[in-house]
Amino acid sequence: MKLSNKAILAPIAAVVLFASVAHANNKMTVDFTGQISSATCDVDLGISGETSVDLGWIPMSDFSMGQSNYLEGGNKSFEIALTQCQYGTQIEVGEDGQPQTVSVEGKGDAELKVTGTTLSGTNEIFSSASTGSNGVILYEVANSNTPVTNNQGIKLSNTGTKQTVAFTAKLASKAKENFAIPSSDVKAPITFTYTYN
């Protein structure tokens, strides 16, 4: 009795197929995120198409003690633009005692929240890691004597479809003297979030 190649290969193919199915990942978890708010704005860097601010190369000799009580060097202005702002509605009891739908525009507290990792021992020198000596410090132009701190909310207008917030960014170091500043590349991811409560 002569077996054909097809008869011999069929059971082998079934075993291979079963083995691959047995090891298949038959489920996955997808993280969905979102936010529900009574008002929203698009948050963008005020430089068209840009998503980063380059502070350049600053020599140690250009650093001096700043308003933050840390050594600061360089100076780069930028804006955060809030556009396409939309306001929701809410139900309120009218003067006649009946419920009525009204716009929330102008009724809530609008803020631009600034968050990021800061260097250990500081709340205002932002860096990609909490270790090290060098990072980035921000000042809101409207309040140039006080550095922006992590988790700070900057008050915004609670009306209108767009507005901007002007900032100044500087390189900063925890070193005590400018000649003691360690050479390093600096990276500081900072998140700007529009909130309306």
TrEMBL record:
InterPro entries: Adhesion_dom_fimbrial_sf, Adhesion_dom_sf, Bact_Fimbrial_Adh_Pro. It comes from the Bacteria. It is found in: Fimbrium. Its main location: other. GO terms for biological process: cell adhesion involved in single-species biofilm formation. Keywords: Fimbrium, Signal. One of its GO terms (cellular component) is pilus. The keyword Lipid metabolism does not apply. Belongs to the fimbrial protein family. This is Type 1 fimbrial protein.
